[in-house]
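FORM 12-B: Structure-to-Sequence Request
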């Protein structure tokens, strides 16, 4: 079956338009992928909770009557991560002269032994569903370089605990 020159031109134009629409989308997806990078001394970093460097939401399950001191467990499929960055972005953490790992955990009396250990940047880790966290309100996840040194400094992410069992 023979197609007219006009039909062929329209088909070619549609193909070009479709290709032009797909290339940026595929490029953007590839650009966001980053292989893990080993944490080394003297690097700047930020911490992320559920993909955010500030004002993150951590969803928790707290069945039953809730009081201001109630604790629950984080819901599955939530993450923490560290990423290396170049200054002058502020605020930032800094691994200092000895840091080769970064420990992350919620700052609260109930979280004393709860930490995620990162040995690489761009390697998200699950927030454990076994942790006990507040059923509501705000808190902080702190990212601390280890071993520490006089030049090391941590990074904090503010979080809001949102109870889905309400």
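FORM 12-B RESPONSE
SEQUENCE OUT:
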């Amino acid at each position: 079956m023979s197609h007219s020159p006009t039909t062929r031109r329209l088909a070619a134009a549609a193909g070009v338009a479709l290709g032009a629409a797909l290339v940026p989308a595929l490029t953007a997806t590839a650009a966001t992928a980053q292989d893990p990078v080993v944490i080394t001394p003297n690097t700047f970093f930020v911490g992320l909770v559920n993909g955010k460097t500030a004002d993150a939401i951590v969803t928790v399950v707290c069945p039953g009557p809730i009081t201001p001191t109630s604790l629950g467990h984080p819901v599955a499929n939530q993450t923490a991560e560290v990423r290396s960055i170049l200054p002058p972005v502020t605020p930032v953490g800094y691994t200092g002269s000895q840091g080769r790992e970064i420990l992350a955990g919620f700052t609260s009396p109930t979280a004393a032994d709860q930490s995620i250990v990162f040995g690489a940047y761009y390697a998200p880790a699950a927030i454990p569903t076994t942790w006990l966290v507040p059923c509501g309100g705000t808190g902080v996840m702190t990212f601390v370089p280890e071993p520490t040194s006089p030049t090391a400094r941590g990074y904090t992410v503010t979080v809001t605990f949102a109870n889905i069992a309400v």
